[in-house]
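Subject: Sanity check before I submit

Could someone independently write out the structure tokens for this chain? I want to compare against mine line by line before I put it in a report. The sequence has 322 residues.
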Amino acid sequence: MRYRIFITGSGIAKEAQQFLRENDCVFEVGDPKDSPEDLARKFKAFNPHGIIVRQGKITAEVLDAAESLQVVCKHGVGTDNIDIAAASERGIPVLYTPRANFESLAEHTLALILALARKIPQQDQRIRNGVFDKKNFDGLELFGKTLGIIGFGNSGRRLTELVAPFRMQVLVYHPSRTAEKLPGYIRKVDHAAAIFPEADIISLHCPLNAATRNLINRETIDQMKPGVLIINTSRGGIVNEGDLFQALQERRIRGAALDVFENEPPAVDHPLFKLDNIIFTTHVGGVSDNSAKNMGMDSVKNVLAVLTGAPVDKGSLVNPGF
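---
Independent answer below. Compare away.
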């Protein structure tokens, strides 16, 4: 049988596209700006058997527009743009690619930590503006600092390995991790709030859900060490951007780095853009030469496993109880 696969957003790696062709699939690629209404219209016309999700919101109405739909797979790890409950009600498995891009994300997070600690973007800008002096430079050493990681999945776990040479103390919180023995420099805590008063640097690696939405807000910031650094390479809604702006403006927080925003792309006049103690990247933490191929290949293999009745990787299933 020839399967129809719709890829929302920006497309997938050429190796993954070739894999689809070799497995007698036809596919169409959407547009990163597609609204749910656009996607519903395109699904109704194409009637896909499988969907690979990059950008765009997959609502109940979008799912209903694809009458032949049998499987949805997220190209990446964040599934907050897919209505999991609606898919489950319709018997449609939702999968993701948990092992495809964690190395890229962990390395990107470390790069942001170092850029913040050493004020690399600010130094670059000063030199470009003709200012070449050292009197205002007050970079931080990571040696001996405490790193707090909220979310101890693949990327958070890899980050603890990457910072080991800096001899940092690491605090980790993950609600579903079972007891396990960790290296001596890593200490697990029972709740996220235990990280706030101790960490010099806080890095977010958790999904966006009801428990984590606005986790970083005025109240939790007040519990943090003065001069803390905050890095978010997870999901924008985990940080209340208004509260972050105020804390950065008041220098309550020394600096922040965001790879994600509450709304993407952010407005060109976003208040955070006015500050000099925050740096940004364009939701590319999980994107690299290797990860793009890995996410594409894992996505198409997950979709084809469901469509052909082959064994499905249970670790990639998102639906509760499936």
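---
OP: Matches mine. For the report I'm noting this point. Residues 3-100+288-316 form a domain with the Rossmann fold fold (CATH 3.40.50.720).
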